[in-house]
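Sequence in, structure out. Go.
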Amino acid sequence: MPIFVVQEHHATHLHWDFRLEVDGILKSWAIPKSPPLKKGLKRLAILVEDHDITYADFEGEIKEGYGKGKVKIWDAGIYELLEKNSKEIKINIKGKKLKGKYCLIKTNFHDSKRKNDWLIFKI
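Output:
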C-alpha cells in the first residue's frame, strides 16, 4: 500500500505538508491550518511541487531558501486510493492521527490565480 506523511513545517508561516505517494513520488499539498481530524472541518490545501519519496522521512531544519525552517513528522502511515480523477481524490488513511476516509477536491477550476487550491476534509 502507498504511504502518506504529514510534516509540520515551521517556515515563514506555520503549515502542514500533506504528502501522498503516487507513482513513486510524493504529491504534496500545503495546509495552512492543521489537517482536519473530525468530519465537518474543511481545510484549504494548496498543491505544491512534487517531492522525492525519500523526503517522507525528513525531519530537521531547512537552513536557507524556499521552505526555510523546522520540519517534523506530524503523522504518517499508509492509505488506500478509493477514487481519483482530475478534480477529486478519495482515500482511506491509516495513520496515528488521521484515520478514515478523506477527500481532496480541486476548487476554482477557472481562476488561474487559484489553480492550485484544493479542499481537504474527512468524509
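Check: The mean pLDDT is 94. The radius of gyration is 14 Å.
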